[in-house]
Structure formats: structure tokens, C-alpha cells
Amino acid sequence: MSDTIYDIAIIGGGPAGLSAALTGRIRNKKILLFEHLGFSEKLQKGHTINNYLGIPAVSGQELMKQFADHVLSYSPELVKEKVVNIFPGDGMFTILTSKSTYEAKAVIIATGVVATGLFEGEKDLLGRGVSYCATCDGMLYRDQDVAVISYTREGEHEAEYLAEICRQVYYLPQYKSEFSAMRSNLAIKTVRPRALSNEANAISLATDKENINVGGVFILRQSDPVENLLPGIELEGEVIKVNRDMATSIPGVFAAGDCTGKPWQISRATGEGLVAVLSAISYLDSQAKAAGA
Amino acid sequence: MSDTIYDIAIIGGGPAGLSAALTGRIRNKKILLFEHLGFSEKLQKGHTINNYLGIPAVSGQELMKQFADHVLSYSPELVKEKVVNIFPGDGMFTILTSKSTYEAKAVIIATGVVATGLFEGEKDLLGRGVSYCATCDGMLYRDQDVAVISYTREGEHEAEYLAEICRQVYYLPQYKSEFSAMRSNLAIKTVRPRALSNEANAISLATDKENINVGGVFILRQSDPVENLLPGIELEGEVIKVNRDMATSIPGVFAAGDCTGKPWQISRATGEGLVAVLSAISYLDSQAKAAGA
């Protein structure tokens, strides 16, 4: 656990999160920036971006590099860990990653496109056989069989960790994978999951090819469903509900970019990130005044 | 009057208007871009801009040049005339400048920081002795005395025009002016206006130094009060009220950037311009469908 109390924790290092971090640092705030995937894989896959004003015809990879270089020159505290949960406390948020915990006075959620199309049964079984974090919950399934549905390459490490403690691990990559497992108890299955159900104290995972019966299922997406990250946050459909100041329903929590809805566009995200961080700074000022009064 | 019917008229060529024009052209729409002041004088006066993500430490002038070059390479129809009025019609807007009229199916207002602090009496006397457009209303004051309160250098030309038709013109520059008038009936007064009142069918203009009595007063700001540009548009305080899609209270009219409120920041403006033009395009699509149905 870090001893520092940060002013603002920014969850996600895509265009929205980076824009927030940039202006936050310029305004001299202690900024904690969580980015566990090397800065917006989605944007980096973009071929040519023509409509980011001032930088014509640039590849997604090059633009993302320019963005990251610009922000990192202002030295935010960069943490390459996935945020698993955010707990609101008394004027303070505790942020739990797969490895550690951090504290910040305000939070900006900039986690990108919201996971839609949860699997049938997923929501009901969350915490009762379904988990989004191997490091957090792996030990609950010690010596049992588990399945790992992963949308990112990062999931390969989590599967290998699970193979150390579980009896049998089925790894279901939902991306173009070249993963070959070293351990004999880690099997790769190229199947598409369909639904999850609870049968006789075990989870039955239906896929397009076979049913897999396990004690637990880990689902590893680029970003988890928002209501899981921060329970109680108000949604509008599937995205985070914000006002024009990018404030969410929870005081001290702001959101920006694709996680607040469409259009999914770079300059909308950078603009919202900027507004979110200025709103967060106003919030900090008002909290400081209230504490001093 | 132009014969072309444009898809979208964008009023203002600062960051918001340029961002809207860029994505509008990329989406292959006929874009009419009104910019009468050489692209955001306000931004061009900025010393160093550090927080436009991806372009570190740039002068306002250089950044505005990069913005304008980027957009102009996509050839929007650039009109260097000040928009005086927008008239909503049947699925069509008529846009009146000081020189001509234009037609467009949708409008994006991106006129920058809204004029605040109108002079006492200004609102009441608008159209009854107070005007925002010399070219439009000059002839009403033929052979009379008039005053011109101007916040831009452009006002010097309007004052000279008025001196051709009026008896006496008092020019009150509210900027650092080096203007020296050629005509003997054009007098420059470095005073600060305070209030306007109607006295015996003439306008009495109170200033910090003297009272000036004239038949009419022209007030030339970088942008006019919004409710004058498009009567009936709903405001929120002094700025244009918009929703998260940047739609205003008038169908087919969108707004973006500083005219929708604070924070006055470049990337907020570019993001809003982008959202506004995508919303305008959706509006055009829905209108086309309704017409086809």
C-alpha cells in the first residue's frame, strides 16, 4: 500500500484519462494514473486518424505515443495495474488493484468503451462462482477446476498463476492468441462462451462447442462493467451518467470519454477529460474550504 | 445571395467551429464556415499553450495556424463575413451577414465567449437607436450623428462607412487603437461607455468623461449577444443552453465551445465541435428520412 494520499486518481490512460492527467499536473495536483494496457489498445489499432484537430493524417499508434509522451513529461504517478474496485470513504477513496491499494481524494473514471453483452447468468453469479480478478479471488478455487475467459493477452499471466494453485485451468482466449501453455494442467480452448449457470454448486459454462463444468469462472475484459468497479454509481443505459461538468452521481467521482457514451471519438474524450479534471479540482477546493471552515 | 444550399453552417472559426468543420467535411457534408476575424483572435493572443494533448508547448498563433491549415485542406466554404442574424424557416435556415444571405439545413453556433455586461439600457434600445451592424442599419441614421462603440479593429471600417452617410461619427475604440480617421466628421473619443438612455427621441450615451448625444449608437463586439443572433434560443444564464449532444432549444441548431459556457479551454471546444457536427449530421439524416417517408 502506498503511503501517499493523491489528489486525483485517474482510472484509464486513453485520450480522456491522459488529457485529465495533463491538465491536472499543469495545475500542480498529485495525480495517480492507472493504465495497465500500454495506453489505449483500441486507439493504437486505428489506421489513420484524420479528425484530431491540428494533427492531420496520423496513425493511431503514433498519436497515442504523442499523447503519452506529452503527459509523461509532466510526471504523473503512473501505475501499471488494473483497478479492481473503488471504495468511497470519508472524503477519501480507496482504490484496490490486483496488487495493492491506493488513496485519493477524487476519482476520474476513464475506462473506455463499456463492456456490453454480459453473458447470460454472469451478473447473478458474480461473487458466487464468477470473478473478474484472478489475483484477488484465485485462492477461493484452490485445487478446483476453473475457466478463464479472457479478452486480453494479459489474461495469459493470470491463467498461469491460476494453474499454480488450481487443479485444472481451461483458458478461453477471445482474441487472436498464440498462447501455448507450459503447464500440463492449463488447457487452451478456442470456443465462444454463451451462458453461465449454477448447477449443483458448480458453474456450468455453455459454449458454441461444449459445456464446461468448473468451480469458478474468471472473466477478464479490458474494462469491467462499471457498476462492478464502483457499486451504486448511476448509469444511463449501459454508460456512466454524467452532467455537463462530467460529475457522476457519487460526489468526488467524475467520468470522461467512451465510458460516458457515444460518439467514441478522440477529441470528445480529450475535451471531457479536461472538463472532468477541472471539475475534480473545483471539488477538491470546495472540500478543503469546508474542512477549513 | 449564394444559390447553394449547404448542409451545415458553422458560425465561428475558433477551435470549436474548426473541429466541427473538419469532421463535417470528412463526413462529406457541404460545410459553410463563417469566420470574419482571422480565426480566434483570443487564442492567437495566448502565449504558450501546454494542455492541448499531443502538441506540447505551442504558441496560440502557431496552434491556430495548425488548426486552420488542417481544416482548410478539406475545403469547407469559408466566408469572411460577420453573421448578423439567423432565421429559422421550413427545414432551412437563412443566414444574414453584413453583405449577403446564405442557406443551410442545420446550424452550429461557435461564436466564442459570450458578450457579457451589456450596457445599461442597451437591451431595451436595441432596434430603437441601438444597432449591432453598420452595414445593415447605417442608412437609418443618414445625416444624423452616431456613435460607434467598437471592441475590434474591424469597427474602424464600419465607422468610415458611417462617416460617408452620417453627419458626425464618434468612434469609441474599446481596444488599443492606433486609428486616425481621414474624414473631418469622424472623431475618435477614448472614453469608456457606461449607459444608454433615450431622451427626446435621441440616444444619450453616458461615459466616464462626458455625455454624448446622438441619433444612433452602433455597438460592435467580436460576437453579439446570442439572443440577438437567433431570437428565442434558450439560454442558461448568459450562455447557450445545450444538452450532452450539443443540441440547443431550436431543432437543427447546435452550439459548441465557449458560447456554451466554461471552462474556456481548447480541447473542450474541439470536443464539443466534434459532437455538435455529428449531432447535426444525425439531425440531417432524420430530416431526410422524414421527407422520404
Straight-line distance between termini of chain A = 31 Å
| CATH domain class name of the largest domain in chain A | Alpha Beta
* Strand tally of chain A: 19
Our Rg estimate of chain A from Cα atoms comes to 20 Å
Describe the sheet with the most strands of chain A: 7 strands, mixed
Approximately what portion of the residues of chain A adopt beta-strand conformation?
A: 25-35%
Determine the CATH topology of the largest domain in chain A: FAD/NAD(P)-binding domain
Low-pLDDT runs of 5+ residues of chain A are: none
Helix/strand class of chain A: alpha/beta
Named at the architecture level, the CATH assignment of the largest domain in chain A is: 3-Layer(bba) Sandwich
For this structure, the quaternary state is homodimer
**Most residues in contact: chain pair:** A-B, 34 and 34 residues
Order of helices and strands of chain A: EHEHEEHEEEEHEHEHEEEEEEHEEEH
Q: Look at the structure and name the CATH superfamily of the largest domain in chain A.
A: FAD/NAD(P)-binding domain
Description of the molecule:
The first copy, chain A, has 293 residues and is α/β, with parallel strands linked by helices. Chain A has 2 domains: 181 residues, FAD/NAD(P)-binding domain (3-Layer(bba) Sandwich); 99 residues, FAD/NAD(P)-binding domain (3-Layer(bba) Sandwich), CATH 3.50.50. Chain A is 27% helix and 29% strand. The first copy, chain A, is built from 8 helices and 19 strands. In chain A, the strands form 5 sheets. In chain A, strands 1, 2, 5, 6, 7, 8 and 19 form a 7-stranded mixed sheet that branches. In chain A, strand 7 and strand 8 form a beta hairpin. The longest helix of chain A has 27 residues. The radius of gyration of chain A is 20 Å and the shape is globular. The model of chain A has no long low-confidence stretch (mean pLDDT 91). The interface between A and B is medium-sized, with 34 and 34 residues.
